Amino acid sequence: MSSRITVIIVRALGLSGATWFNLVLGNHDEAMALGPPARILDLPAKDAGEACFVHRERCDFWPAFLRERDHRGRFFEDIAASTGKRILVVNYPPRELIEREIDGRGFRILTVRLVRDGRAVLFSRMRHYGTLTPGTAIHHIVDWQIPVWDRVDRKLTSVPSPAALTVRYEDMLLDGAKELARVGDFVGIRYGENATRFWERPQHLTAGNTGVIDLLCRLQGETGHHNRRADTYARMAEELSVDPERTFLDESWIDSLSREDRLAFDCLLGERNALYGYPRDSFLDGERHEFLRDLDRRLTEARAVEQPGRDDNAAAVPSGLGRLSRFLSHKRAQ
Ligand SMILES: [Zn+2]
Predict the structure, then answer these.
(1) Residue of 265, 251, 320, 268 lying closest to 135 (CA atoms)
(2) pLDDT, tens only, 113-146
(3) Are 23 and 216 in contact (CB under 8 A)?
(4) Which of these three, 242, 267, 283, is where a domain ends?
(5) How far is CA 310 from the centre of its chain?
(6) What's the gap in Å between 51 CA and the centre of ligand 1?
(7) Fewer CB atoms near the end CB (10 Å): N or C, the chain?
(8) CATH code at 103?
(9) Is residue 330 pLDDT above 70, yes or no?
(10) What are phi and psi of 34, to 5 degrees?
(11) Residues 201 and 264 in one domain
């Protein structure tokens, strides 16, 4: 491997296992997992003791690194020089950060699109917000899932295909060795047999999914990290310490996502989800048409309330409804 720095940018649709995936990719002699980098890149040196979410003030990397100098404008070069790692893995860096720290610096930039069945993602989101009442999925789909999906699609259209790879979260969990061999070919390295045991080497995440960071801390004998599902992650840590090959594919959405919410998902995102090989739910055409007609009616009523006399002005309605309105116009035009 040449000394040229490789930056792997992981783009995911949220709640798709990106923190875990980042830790697994970082589990290699040449690589370092940084997770979402926005926080650490602009963290003032005075907060250096709080930089690492795994070791806190006892961290043997970040505090010394951050106090050494101002790394802005040369962050990745400095990390590579300081750690000897040539492959730096980040999750969804903001655009301004890419412009400042990644573009035009001679790095090799690779993008991995991490996907997960959108219904599992939707269910996780609803559970996270405590809104599992049937009929509420539509709000999460319109206000969050569609815009995030659009944003990732837009970002990836400008990446030439040899520099981009799509990985399914479920495949990583069910056949990690095979998927890691594929990722390794893409990056130009070989992952070891135990690479999915991300806790078996030092990791210094400074942001990311708090549950996964909690799991990492527990498996490394650290205190843990505050998160809403601490009991679940404590149980996982116990099971992994007995059987490190154990995998946890959360499929609770299959039994728990209501038929009504699955219909909403199928009508609005089913086709897009199927592009990644996730089979669609079966509904009758009549059910789908009825759903879209009902949605259209609700939208028209909502617009009339928001903008009396201006019921054609989709741009003037609240953002989620505006997006939905444009989406329905697009569907009708197809
Ligand atoms: Zn640390």
Answers:
(1) 265
(2) 999 999 999 999 999 888 888 989 998 998 899 9
(3) yes
(4) 242
(5) 38
(6) 8
(7) C
(8) 3.40.50.300
(9) no
(10) -105, -15
(11) no
